[in-house]
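Hi support team,

I submitted a single chain yesterday and got back a structure, but I'm not sure I'm reading the token output correctly. Could someone confirm the output below corresponds to the sequence I sent? I've pasted both exactly as they appear in my results page.

Thanks,
R.
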Amino acid sequence: MEHHRENQVPHVLIFPFPAQGHINSMLPLAKLLSLAGFHVTFLNSDHNQHRLLGNADLAAWAARWHGFRSRSISDGLRPDYPRVADNLMPLFDSLKANTKPILRDMLVSDRKLGSEYPVTCIIGDGIMSFVIDVAEEVGLPVLSFRTISACSLWCYFRIPKLVEAGELPFGDDADMDRAIKGVLGMESFLRRRDLPHFCRAKEVTDPGLQLVWSETLKTTRSSALVLNTFEDLEPQILSHIRAHWPTTYTIGPLHALLQSRATDSADSTDSSSLWKEDRTCMKWLNGQPHGSVLYISFGSYTVVTRPKLLEFWHGLVNSQTRFLWVIRPDLVDGGGDVGQVPEELAGATKERGFIVEWAPQEEVLAHPAVGGFLTHSGWNSTLESMFAGVPMICWPYFADQQINSRYVSEVWRLGLDMKDKCDRETVEKMVRELMEERRGEFMKSAEEMADLAKKSIEKGGSTYTNLEKLIQDIRAMCF
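Hi R., thanks for writing in. Yes, this is the structure output for that exact sequence:
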């Protein structure tokens, strides 16, 4: 490695898995490190970079965030490949086969990546262990960033123990409410249906199960672990994690930490969305009563069948609740549009609903008219809802979302878990429960959690302190 002078400025390469949720977690860290005076190269896939350029002015970002630059790399798939949850395995395979050698060549041929300073370290997405391989080959320190909750990561890590104990795999006819005892710290409330979706595989050789199993174990080879969570949220689980990742930085909620550090409001509200945000919903929210609106979004990857979508719609309309609903162009399974909507649903939506293709979610959740969030329980959405003090109805789709939803309902008491159900009667019942019958109970818990989250990012708070330690430790790598 090059000899580093005492005045060397750290240059950090940040490489997220090419998905909206992973970008949303890791981009705020890139900006925070830029604020600390670092040079930061944020590496997007070519596909996502193209989409991001349609919604963001990256040149303005570089001007505003001194030292920040964005580069892109091929994910090896054709541009029109459907990058949704059901098609992720080919993306993982392509990244390992095609992107890994490109990354290695990029670092070998241009260690500075357009900066005046050579790369000091890599912060790689922990679901892509090939980044660790490349870092080791070129002689760079590597930190693994897991964009999921600590409780989900811990559950992933315990998969070998679950297999060893005979708790995995289980068949289609299994009792899904049977208790799972092999995840330390979760013995009293975890059920089969609360395990990550890939744990429902019929065989232990299932590619999805094997992928998460191997990638999680390989992450222990990195020099440190970075998590978008805070100490008061998952204290017991973090103690288990630190037995295997001794150096673990908890620096969440990152979206809020960035807002607290940015001096210009524009700095913290730059859109990093791969979809064009429809801001007309903010004007609509301005005309709604305080706490009256249920916000609905299933994130960037979830797909649903048209019959399921209509069941949700009937349940929402029957609940008589005002709602703001994000229906992505690719939300319906098969890529088709919503199609003909029954007149009673269309009419009721015009009266008390509003539908957009994508929304500025952080702003929506912070709006006083929003009183609840029907969510897929992605970790970014969960943290954003927590910080805003908004109770949740959870309808998890895949990956870590099943664990998150169980924690929301049973551990943090921030809402209701609707997993594995989507009939109109259940939707109506849970919406009424969240927005009316148990509103006071959930609001009390949500406000208490929001207060803990806010304290964590204040000076002296755990998140604030851990970010400072991360900055110091990366700076020390220059010497």
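A quick pointer for reading it: Residues 1-6 have pLDDT under 50 and may be disordered. Let us know if anything else looks off.

Best,
Support desk
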